[in-house]
Amino acid sequence: MINTKQDYGFVLLKLEDNLTTNKLLQNIETIIENNPYNQICIFNSSNQKIGHHSVPVLHLNQSKFFYGNLFLFDIQSAIITKSYPNIYKRYFYATNIPWEKNRLVDYKEWNDMLDSDNLEIIAQNQYIADIYEICWKKPILIAEDFTYEHIKKVLE
Amino acid sequence: MKIFVEKNNDKFINNLILSLNWMGIETYSSEIDQDLYKIYHYYPFNVGVFVASKFNHETAQFIAEFYSRPNTKMIVYHDIYRTDIESDFSKAAIHIRNDKEYDKVKIPELVNHFLFRNVGLERKKNSYAVFLDNSKELPEDLGELLYPNTKLHINMFNSSEIQHHQNLGLISEIDKANILNTYEFFIDIHHNYANEARLCGSKVVDVAQIKNHKKPRNPKNINAETYKNFIRSTIL
Lengths: 156, 236
Prior knowledge:
heterodimer, A: alpha/beta, two-stranded parallel sheet, globular, B: alpha/beta, six-stranded parallel sheet, 9 helices
């Protein structure tokens, strides 16, 4: 299969056996069902999930060879994937304001992470969207939950 | 000529170190941490610049021992005014200070022309930069302009004490020059970087001007001495 700009990787550093992870995996399953001709997988480094979800999971190491788009859910993933050569777009699902609490980090590091050309921001709510727009760049979407319905605009 | 500068995170010391490096003068800067004699052993300098707020017995002993050697100059920078150091070392060291009232070597208004200049970068429209520079509290009037009170694109920098979503982290002097080259406006809350902002092409405003929607008036002439001249006249 040829890789395309419509292939999606989801970087989930920790897969834990809890409600949030279950919900997220269900949502990724729905995305797969609705996009049967795209390659979609999860990249993960710590898996404590006893799973019954039919989502392919690859080790995080493999993500650097991935062609397509990546969805990121934390700032660590944004740091890890910053220099990946084959990524068309990275979509960062912002649920908090990490620089507000980590005040000893240099501005340059935040700027390199969050004002990067290939990084787009999806904000969880209007407040997060406003703050990201004021500080870095305007989010492309506000999605209260990371569900297929909410993010399908990005996938189209 | 070898120069040692004791590190201190303030505008004068940071720009002094950068300017000395740009001028090609052999310079070493570090914290002293009770290692001044060791530093001198590895790097026998002719000019030592010491910071008054960090002055201790070791520095005092060192100056007393070395000031009379040929081609040697000891300088104490009074970031806070220490009359005890000034009286104890009135002959052994040159005392410099950022204060209009000071009658010894007063540091004039200085600008680092090497660093702060307009390099023609693209500017973020309607963006405002603020340097908090180690402030512990937000100025009250500035708070009125921040989210959620307004949606103005105001970004603050350089305070590890203030927890605020528009405080974007710590910056160096080089970052400051870059920010003043990319932000359209600069809010000068400490009256410390107005000349630098003008040199970089950022319009200097204050909080009242923003509230009243007044246009900034930026003079074209900048009345400030260069670090280069100050180094030549006082440090070397």
